[in-house]
Amino acid sequence: MGNVTADTSRPNCTIDHTIHQTLAPVVYVTVLVVGFPANCLSLYFGYLQIKARNELGVYLFNLTVADLFYICSLPFWLQYVLQHDNWSYGDLSCQVCGILLYENIYISVGFLCCISIDRYLAVAHPFRFHQFRTLKAAVGVSVVIWAKELLASVYFLLHTEVVEDEDQHRVCFEHYPLEPWQRNINYYRFLVGFLFPLCLLLAAYRGILRAVRRSHGTQQSRKDQIQRLVLSTVVIFLACFLPYHVLLLVRSLWESSCQFAQSAFNAYHFSLLLTTFNCVADPVLYCFVSETTHRDMARLRAACRALLTCSRTRGPREAYPLGTPEASGVKSEEPELLRKLQSTFQTPNSPKGEGLPPAGLA
């Protein structure tokens, strides 16, 4: 069970899919349990930033939407692997779920690149290129990214993605060894979808670090926080996407036999599972570290605490209004939290061109 034959029209290529029945369910369940609520909360905070006319919120919102689309396809993939790689739905649903799986990678890469460039312009050139840091410009860029990936996904709809293996299982989105049409699209995915955005991201964050180090009007704690964020962003980006694209390129260049496909299968699918963790990392990196999000979380935490207190003691009818807990004799910790957060993320005033703008990374 769990072995797959690539195509009935070609010589048999039987591959052991044990990794799908052991590691994949653990990863999918973890991402579902952690990633879904985290991205729902991230979606809300992204909406708040858009409402505040912050163009960075547009990229965060779209990034979260892409992650949620992929997370919604995970129950189908979970059932698929638990049934020993047997797709029990229609051919079109296989193509749609496969597109959500693969295209989420490049939509995420695109918006991560947009966020990095936006932050570079905000930190290194706060008084220039303001026309590129508007809500309208962010919406336009977002439309281009979605349109590009949706057009690329049409390529997969033109090919059959469900084949039967030797055990009469319907295998979804797997061909061994690679077919010629897959090599061409893989080169495009590696060069245009990954390598080019990676170069832009690294260049942007190099410029951010240089601007931070040259700033004389910024507290050292603020500089350390920005540098930790930059480093963690690059590390997570590389950890989630680099192994997969290296192996994707290796397979596209040298996979011409069943023996090679068998030797590369486990490593390739392990790297594919790593890309799934991007859905968990995105909310942590790009939403829960900003000053405005910390304030919103403090308010939300205070509201939840007030609601729980009232439900336990006086009932919902006697709940005091948010922001005026003194009326019911319950002391709120929100002002103290906000003071601590503001002191942590505050950027002191500095002469023009020296200090970082207060909202540069928010």
Automatic annotation (TrEMBL):
<feature type="transmembrane region" description="Helical">
    <location>
        <begin position="187"/>
        <end position="208"/>
    </location>
</feature>
<comment type="similarity">
    <text>Belongs to the G-protein coupled receptor 1 family.</text>
</comment>
<dbReference type="InterPro" id="IPR005389">
    <property type="entry name" value="OGR1_rcpt"/>
</dbReference>
<keyword id="KW-1003">Cell membrane</keyword>
<dbReference type="Pfam" id="PF00001">
    <property type="entry name" value="7tm_1"/>
</dbReference>
<feature type="transmembrane region" description="Helical">
    <location>
        <begin position="59"/>
        <end position="78"/>
    </location>
</feature>
<dbReference type="GO" id="GO:0005886">
    <property type="term" value="C:plasma membrane"/>
</dbReference>
<dbReference type="GO" id="GO:0004930">
    <property type="term" value="F:G protein-coupled receptor activity"/>
</dbReference>
<dbReference type="GO" id="GO:0071468">
    <property type="term" value="P:cellular response to acidic pH"/>
</dbReference>
<keyword id="KW-1133">Transmembrane helix</keyword>
<keyword id="KW-0472">Membrane</keyword>
<keyword id="KW-0297">G-protein coupled receptor</keyword>
<dbReference type="GO" id="GO:0034405">
    <property type="term" value="P:response to fluid shear stress"/>
</dbReference>
<feature type="transmembrane region" description="Helical">
    <location>
        <begin position="229"/>
        <end position="247"/>
    </location>
</feature>
<keyword id="KW-0807">Transducer</keyword>
<feature type="domain" description="G-protein coupled receptors family 1 profile">
    <location>
        <begin position="38"/>
        <end position="286"/>
    </location>
</feature>
<protein>
    <submittedName>
        <fullName>G protein-coupled receptor 68</fullName>
    </submittedName>
</protein>
<dbReference type="InterPro" id="IPR017452">
    <property type="entry name" value="GPCR_Rhodpsn_7TM"/>
</dbReference>
<keyword id="KW-0675">Receptor</keyword>
<feature type="transmembrane region" description="Helical">
    <location>
        <begin position="98"/>
        <end position="117"/>
    </location>
</feature>
<feature type="region of interest" description="Disordered">
    <location>
        <begin position="341"/>
        <end position="362"/>
    </location>
</feature>
<keyword id="KW-0325">Glycoprotein</keyword>
<keyword id="KW-0812">Transmembrane</keyword>
<feature type="transmembrane region" description="Helical">
    <location>
        <begin position="267"/>
        <end position="289"/>
    </location>
</feature>
<feature type="transmembrane region" description="Helical">
    <location>
        <begin position="26"/>
        <end position="47"/>
    </location>
</feature>
<dbReference type="InterPro" id="IPR000276">
    <property type="entry name" value="GPCR_Rhodpsn"/>
</dbReference>
<feature type="transmembrane region" description="Helical">
    <location>
        <begin position="137"/>
        <end position="158"/>
    </location>
</feature>
<dbReference type="GO" id="GO:0007189">
    <property type="term" value="P:adenylate cyclase-activating G protein-coupled receptor signaling pathway"/>
</dbReference>
<keyword id="KW-1015">Disulfide bond</keyword>
<dbReference type="GO" id="GO:0007200">
    <property type="term" value="P:phospholipase C-activating G protein-coupled receptor signaling pathway"/>
</dbReference>
<feature type="compositionally biased region" description="Polar residues">
    <location>
        <begin position="341"/>
        <end position="350"/>
    </location>
</feature>
